[in-house]
């Protein structure tokens, strides 16, 4: 028994029983149990954990990893974790071994690259007629494996009539593995002849360390490396499994000497989608994906061993869709193949061996981006390459390799940023979206703490994308953008709302006619251009207390027509309640933007002045939601292509109700189809949603909300699941970190990082962060998080009123803030120092790297306008001015109407007043 040097918590979740070490907990556990592990360091000599019961092992603290450091002794080392099917069989337990390990970090402590051992070992050997091992279904989730000779290895199931074991890797990292002492024996992943391998949302990468000396190439076949034994030259993923499925992964050799990114020497059913592959600058092979080098005669020719020839009835098929493959191999003796399908097999050979029918191999390779360096043109799969690898292999031209883009480095946004999720400059039209998942990566510096992850994708673009999709800057911007002044405000080519109001002379307008009077709905009023007029709810009905979100690469259906591109989507309005509960969009910004009514308002409207005299907008009679005080309470759930909206009006009857709209449905033709079940999407927020900041993280599948009443002191978190309840978390740990009571919050969840960033639109000079992964003391709602005010340095942002004095009115600043996720910087614009002035300039705020957010200042730079127009202040509408006699031009916070517009039209969008077109600040 191996006792950890750090004793600690191992808890069986079902019973609550605690144990000092893993072996004790495992002994006490029964099939189906979960063992919770304290997130700390465990050091072992030679060998870590042996798992032979059907268990789930995970961290006791979500978001925190525990670590297994395996110490070399006498030049030998074992595995960190073994899924031991042989032990299960010998212990007499029935059935398969089905086990999952989550949240583990595993590394060799003091690795010397001489051992040839793996961090994770799946032991499932069998022989024909001698079942010595149980079949194994092993899963790793959110794990970090690094600095091992070999990352993950499975046995071969030599009984080809019983190859059913599986291995699954999800949201995990395998880094700096596959190094050898001699011979090409170790790989980052080596999967033997088992049933299936599945990898999703994971990173498998190697990178030369600064202290390594440059390797020397020998003239051997494949350009093998002769040099220090720590250079990794194995394959990144080598799989002999019957089925290999790789989705939304980053598999990169970078500047190491790795061989093939993905090799399936025995064929099988291979699917690779939505992933990013890179052949590094010292690559030891000539293909990104190699399939079938050891099928049939080729294996016998090379080794004389026909056992590895596939006799298990496998399907031999290659499907490679929507991947980005970058050739960084500058060795002039190499010519890389992006996807090599090579095999040599004949029916005569298979008959001579008694194997039956020779396997057929099919392939379908499409919608990929193949990127080559500037030296030469690498070989696309449609070209084929006979004599691949020497010794009579067989290379074929893949006739079913179509709709692929072959481009040079210059077509990429940034070749030095290997985690950007590159895509082709322009989306592909008329093709199937094969890739179900998209990878959101993390930087190398954060490997030990964060995992990559995958989310369902809705785009039809080539290549692998992040949850924040970064589009190549090589896409030609539209003419309206090229004509806009740089670093200045200009008008967007979108008409004002007033010119789009439905009138007898404009029956196709998109803005519903209104009585403008605070009265119940009156269906007997004469129709205007065939439309039923909607009532008002007072002078501020059309002040537009709305909210909006800029959504990159949005796809929505309106009246049977599908629209796609970058759109700003708006919903809500009215100081008390709005009779107009239509959903509007402006876009596409990467084309010619125009205003589109995704839905029309309900008639009768979602306003009630009859039952109790109080205006409210919970639901219209047709079941659709109302539209009051939406502000910044917007969450776009990319994996579901759904917009969730919070109706604020905390002092009205609709407090805290949230609604969802499904863009894939035609809510214009059939409103009940678009709005999710005509019901609240989430349970009501405890503090309501008025002036609340919602922060959406599509990579983690989280929505966070902090209400105006931060003195509660709670922040809420919800999943993407319809009907789920908000989970409340305390954010006060010490008096020092108590945030102010303040209205008009806006915030962002920085994807790939742990930070929630918050600011108040009336106090633009004060910014806050919450470490959502921090585990503090326990309060009434569980583990507390901390809220910190960050330090700003550089140019001064107008200060605004003191915290808590949110009703400063004329002394109050009405600012907007936006986050540029492509360049990781924020922008602030204020309406002025009081309600009667308007600023022409903006401020740029650049935060430090993730680990320095609390310790280093955030740099503020005032960016002065270089011309353009003077923007309109966000105060209200001509109707408000007319009805109140208040002609001030300033006032009312911009809310979600001030948003960052992504590439290829990088800028800041602002739209609040209904009587003027939107304005736009073009960024460099």
Q: What layout of secondary structure does this protein have?
A:
Blueprint lengths: L9 E3 L5 E2 L2 H7 L5 E4 L3 E5 L3 E3 L4 E4 L6 E6 L9 E4 H6 L6 E6 L1 E6 L8 E6 L12 E6 L2 E5 L1 E5 L11 E5 L2 E5 L11 E3 L4 E5 L2 E3 L10 E2 L7 E2 L10 E3 L3 E5 L2 E3 L9 E3 L4 E5 L2 E4 L7 E5 L5 H7 L12 E6 L2 E4 L9 E5 L5 H7 L7 E6 L2 E4 L28 E2 L2 E4 L28 E4 L12 E4 L22 H4 L6 E3 L22 E5 L15 E3 L10 E12 L2 E11 L11 E5 L6 E4 L36 E4 L4 E6 L9 E6 L8 H4 L18 E5 L4 E5 L7 E5 L8 E4 L14 E5 L5 E6 L2 E9 L6 E2 L2 E2 L3 E3 L2 E3 L20 E6 L4 E6 L11 E5 L11 E6 L14 H7 L13 E4 L5 E4 L8 E4 L2
Parallel strand pairs: 3-6, 4-7, 5-8, 6-9, 7-10, 8-11, 9-12, 10-13, 11-14, 12-15, 13-16, 14-17, 15-18, 16-19, 17-22, 18-23, 19-24, 22-25, 23-26, 24-27, 25-28, 26-29, 27-30, 28-31, 29-32, 30-33, 32-34, 33-35, 39-40, 58-62
Antiparallel strand pairs: 1-2, 1-3, 20-21, 36-37, 38-65, 41-42, 42-43, 43-44, 45-46, 46-47, 48-49, 49-50, 50-51, 52-53, 53-54, 54-57, 55-56, 59-60, 60-61, 61-62, 63-64, 64-65
Short description:
This protein has 924 residues and is mainly β. The chain has 7 helices and 65 strands. Mean pLDDT is 78; it is low at 1-7, 218-229, 387-393, 417-423, 465-474, 649-653, 804-811 and 876-880.
Class of the largest domain, according to the CATH hierarchy? Mainly Beta
- Global structural class: mainly beta
CATH architecture of the largest domain: 7 Propeller
Mean pLDDT: 78
């Amino acid at each position: 028994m191996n006792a950890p040097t750090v004793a600690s918590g191992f808890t069986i979740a079902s019973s609550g029983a605690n144990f000092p070490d893993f072996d004790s907990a495992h002994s006490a556990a029964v099939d189906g149990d979960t063992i919770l592990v304290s997130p700390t360091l465990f050091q072992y000599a030679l060998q870590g954990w042996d798992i032979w019961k059907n268990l789930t092992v995970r961290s006791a603290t979500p978001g925190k990893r525990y670590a297994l450091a395996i110490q070399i002794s006498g030049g030998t080392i074992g595995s960190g974790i073994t899924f031991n099917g042989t032990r299960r069989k010998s212990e007499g337990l029935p059935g398969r071994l089905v086990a999952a390990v989550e949240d583990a970090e595993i590394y060799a402590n003091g690795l010397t690259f001489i051992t040839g051992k793996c961090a994770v070992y799946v032991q499932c050997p069998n022989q024909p007629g001698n079942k010595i091992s149980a079949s194994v279904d092993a899963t790793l989730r959110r794990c970090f494996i690094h600095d091992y000779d070999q990352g993950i290895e499975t046995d071969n199931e030599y009984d080809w009539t019983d190859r059913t074991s599986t291995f699954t890797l999800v949201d995990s990292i395998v880094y700096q593995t596959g190094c050898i002492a001699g011979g090409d024996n170790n790989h980052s992943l080596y999967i033997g002849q088992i049933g299936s391998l599945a990898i999703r949302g994971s990173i498998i990468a190697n990178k030369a360390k600064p202290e390594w000396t440059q390797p020397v190439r020998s003239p051997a076949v494949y350009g093998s490396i002769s040099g220090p034994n720590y250079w990794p030259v194995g394959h990144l993923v080598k799989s002999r499994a019957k089925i290999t499925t790789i989705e939304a992964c980053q598999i990169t050799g970078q500047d190491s000497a790795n061989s093939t990114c993905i090799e399936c020497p025995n064929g099988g059913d291979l699917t690779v989608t939505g992933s990013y592959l890179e052949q590094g600058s010292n690559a030891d092979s000539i293909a990104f994906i190699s399939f079938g080098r050891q099928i049939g005669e080729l294996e016998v020719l090379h080794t004389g061993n026909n056992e590895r020839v596939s006799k298990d009835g496998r399907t031999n098929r290659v499907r490679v869709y929507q991947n980005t493959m970058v050739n960084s191999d500058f060795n002039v003796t190499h010519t890389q193949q992006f996807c090599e399908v090579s095999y040599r097999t004949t029916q005569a050979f298979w008959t001579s061996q008694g194997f039956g029918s020779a396997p057929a191999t099919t392939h379908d390779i499409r919608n990929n981006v193949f990127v080559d360096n500037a030296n030469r043109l690498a070989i696309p799969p449609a070209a084929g390459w006979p004599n691949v690898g020497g010794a009579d292999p067989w290379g074929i031209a893949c006739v079913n390799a179509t709709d692929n883009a072959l481009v040079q480095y210059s077509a990429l946004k940034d070749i030095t940023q290997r985690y950007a999720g590159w895509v082709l400059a322009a989306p592909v039209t008329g093709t199937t979206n094969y890739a179900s998942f998209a990878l959101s990566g993390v930087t190398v510096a954060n490997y030990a703490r964060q995992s990559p992850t995958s989310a369902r994708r809705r785009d039809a673009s080539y290549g692998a994308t992040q949850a924040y999709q970064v589009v190549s800057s090589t896409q030609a911007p539209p003419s309206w953008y090229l004509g806009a002044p740089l670093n200045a405000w200009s008008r967007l080519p979108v008409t004002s709302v007033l010119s789009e109001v439905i009138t007898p002379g404009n029956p196709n307008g998109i803005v519903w006619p209104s009585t403008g009077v605070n009265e119940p709905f009156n269906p007997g009023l004469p129709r205007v251009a065939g439309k039923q007029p909607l009532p008002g709810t007072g002078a501020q009905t059309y002040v537009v207390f709305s909210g909006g979100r800029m959504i990159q690469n949005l796809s929505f259906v309106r009246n049977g027509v599908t629209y796609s591109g970058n759109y700003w989507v708006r919903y809500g309005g009215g100081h008390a309640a709005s009779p107009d509960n239509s959903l509007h969009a402006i876009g596409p910004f990467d084309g010619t933007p125009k205003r589109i009514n995704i839905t029309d308002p309900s008639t009768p409207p979602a306003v009630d002045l009859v039952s109790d005299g109080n205006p409210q907008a919970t639901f219209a009679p047709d079941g659709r939601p109302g539209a009051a005080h939406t502000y910044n309470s917007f969450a776009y759930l990319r994996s579901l292509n759904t917009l969730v909206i919070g109706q604020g009006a905390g002092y009205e009857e609709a407090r805290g109700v949230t609604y969802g709209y499904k863009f894939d449905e035609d809510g214009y033709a059939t409103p009940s189809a678009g709005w999710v079940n005509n019901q609240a999407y989430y349970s009501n927020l405890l503090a309501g949603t008025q002036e609340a900041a919602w922060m959406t993280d599509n990579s983690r599948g989280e929505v966070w909300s902090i209400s105006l009443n931060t003195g509660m002191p709670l922040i809420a978190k919800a999943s993407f699941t319809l009907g789920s309840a908000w989970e409340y978390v305390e954010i006060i740990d010490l008096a020092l970190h108590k945030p102010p009571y303040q209205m008009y919050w806006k915030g962002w969840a920085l994807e790939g990082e742990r930070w929630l960033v918050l600011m108040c639109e009336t106090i633009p000079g004060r910014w806050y962060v919450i470490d959502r992964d921090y585990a503090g003391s326990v309060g009434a709602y569980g583990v507390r998080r901390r809220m910190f005010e960050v330090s700003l340095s550089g140019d001064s942002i107008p200060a605004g009123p003191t915290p808590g004095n949110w009703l400063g009115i004329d002394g109050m600043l009405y600012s907007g803030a936006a986050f540029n996720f492509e360049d990781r910087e924020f922008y602030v614009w204020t309406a002025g120092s009081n309600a009667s002035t308007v600023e022409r300039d903006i401020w740029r705020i650049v935060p430090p790297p993730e680990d320095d957010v609390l310790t280093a200042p955030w740099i503020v730079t005032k960016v002065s306008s270089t011309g353009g127009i003077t923007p309109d202040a966000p105060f209200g509408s001509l109707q408000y001015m007319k009805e109140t006699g208040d002609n001030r031009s300033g006032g009312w916070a911009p809310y979600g109407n001030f948003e960052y517009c992504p590439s290829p039209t990088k800028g800041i969008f602002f739209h609040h007043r209904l009587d003027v077109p939107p304005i736009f600040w073009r960024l460099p």
